Amino acid sequence: MTDIGIGHTWDGAALPPSAHTRLRVALDDRGLRIEVDAPFAGDPPPSGPPGSHAELWEHEVVELFVAGEDGRYTEIELSPHGHHLVLQLDGVRRVVASGLPLRFSAQIDGDRWRGVAHLDRALLPAHPTHFNAYRIGGGRFEAHAAVPGEAPDFHQPARFVPWAPADPVAVGTVYCIGRNYAAHAAELGNAVPSEPVVFLKAAASVRGLQPAPLAFPEERPHHEVELVLRLGAPVGLGETAGWEVVDAVTLGLDLTRRPVQARCKEAGHPWTAAKSFAGSAVLGPFLRREALGDPAALRFSLWVQGALKQEGDPGLMLFDVPAILAHLASLNPLRSGDLVFTGTPRGVGPIAVGDAFRMQLRAAGGTWDFAGVL
Predict the structure, then answer these.
(1) What's the Cα-to-Cα distance from 43 to each of 38, 138, 246, rounded to whole Å?
(2) Does one domain contain both 152 and 220?
(3) Is the pLDDT of residue 164 over 80?
(4) Domain harbouring 249, CATH code
(5) Any domain includes 167
(6) DSSP calls for 104-160
(7) How many whole angstroms separate alpha carbon 56 and alpha carbon 135?
(8) How far apart are CA 227 and CA 176, in angstroms?
């Protein structure tokens, strides 16, 4: 499933973590599954029993717009009271079908509500390419990707972001490359290495963007934002490979217990206790590599509590992707599902449980924002 966060007002101002809306979506040949976890503002419910309801946007609602390559899009609206509305549009606001069927259930739990929806595949664009998600409630208009203007206008396909979720696969070995940006090595007083510095994280350390159990929650680990690769093809022992074996890409946080790492280094011990612990490998949703375009154009950034902390340019890596993969394959054969954290740029620093963060990946194929809470 792919995580979609609504963490901004319609015009781009950051919301506190407690006000975030979280969607989890999965698309297959049968249809689209949407799981909603959203704030409940307590607005008056629509009239009538749960089910399809016209003009639902006049009430408290979460919306998902999914567009195809031909300019058509499907609008899915979900209410905390069990009402829903599905529309198909052929261009901006040109509704061609309304009140389409949807299986949907919702439950209010205090100041939040949760729901699960299933939409038949035939009601979506044949080839989804872009999307956006919104929330209306309590007099506020909120968005996944901002829609600037004089007033909130969600029907702006030009503001939709690329729909590029990769198919889920089981996580294999999690390889990490240390000191791969000279400026980061310098900020920690480390020498620039002559070959890739490799360490591992347990697969059990992997988590998504939303709060999850974190070992040593009383500590404030350092954030290290990184470009993360997922291998879609094996690489034999001693073989060379490049981007062609990478099937998906995301951004991740390599959380590091810096004082523990310092003690490990001083004693000449491995870094495992500092690097591999529950919740230490934070991952955004994986995106299909081909949707990103030229890898040379990739750039990424990290904000913590609204403050810009790190910016990365993979062109500044000391060891590029082919060099990293060749080095790893000289140690072990690589398998489909293996992950590679490729190193962090300068700007690492503490992050605490409950802090909101946002990672942004910019590519020739589009821009993706991954918002989460530690």
Answers:
(1) 13, 6, 46
(2) no
(3) no
(4) 3.90.850.10
(5) no
(6) EEEEEETTEEEEEEEEEGGGS-SSEEEEEEEEEETTEEEESS---SSS-----GGG-
(7) 12
(8) 11
SS3 (DSSP) at 217: coil
In a domain, 168, yes or no: no
Spatial contact of 141 and 134, defined as CB atoms under 8 Å apart: yes
Chain centroid to CA 28: 19
Cα–Cα distance for residue pair 202/123, rounded to 1 Å:
40
Same domain? 154 vs 180: no
CA distance 221 to 273: 12
Same domain, 219 and 119: no
CA 31, CA 25: separation in Å to the nearest integer?
Answer: 10
Contact, 83 vs 50, CB < 8 A? Answer: yes
Q: pLDDT tier at 162 (50, 70, 90 boundaries)?
A: confident
User: Which domain-ending residue is among 128, 162, 196?
Assistant: 162
- Shared-domain flag, residues 65 and 182: no
Give the per-residue pLDDT at 238: 97
Same-domain status, 76 and 185: no
pLDDT band at residue 256 using 50, 70 and 90 as cut-offs: very high
Number of domains in the chain: 2
At 139 the pLDDT is 94
Question: Which amino acid appears at position 128 of this protein?
Answer: P
Confidence (pLDDT) at 365: 79
Cα Rg, the chain, nearest whole Å: 22
Q: What is the DSSP string of 7-44?
A: -EETTSPBPPGGG-EEEEEEE-SSEEEEEEEEE---PP
One-letter identity of residue 319? F
Co-location of 60 and 151 in the same domain: yes
Domain final residue pick, 162, 192, 211: 162
CA distances to 146, 154, 190, 253 from 141, rounded to whole Å, are 10, 9, 47, 29
C-alpha to C-alpha distance for 26 and 165, rounded to whole angstroms: 9
Contact between residue 213 and residue 281 where contact means Cβ atoms under 8 Å apart? no
Range of the domain at 323: 174-373
Same domain assignment for residues 217 and 110: no
Same domain, 111 and 235: no
Q: Rounded to whole angstroms, how far apart are CA atoms 346 and 340? A: 19
| Other CB atoms within 10 Å distance of the CB of residue 111 | 10
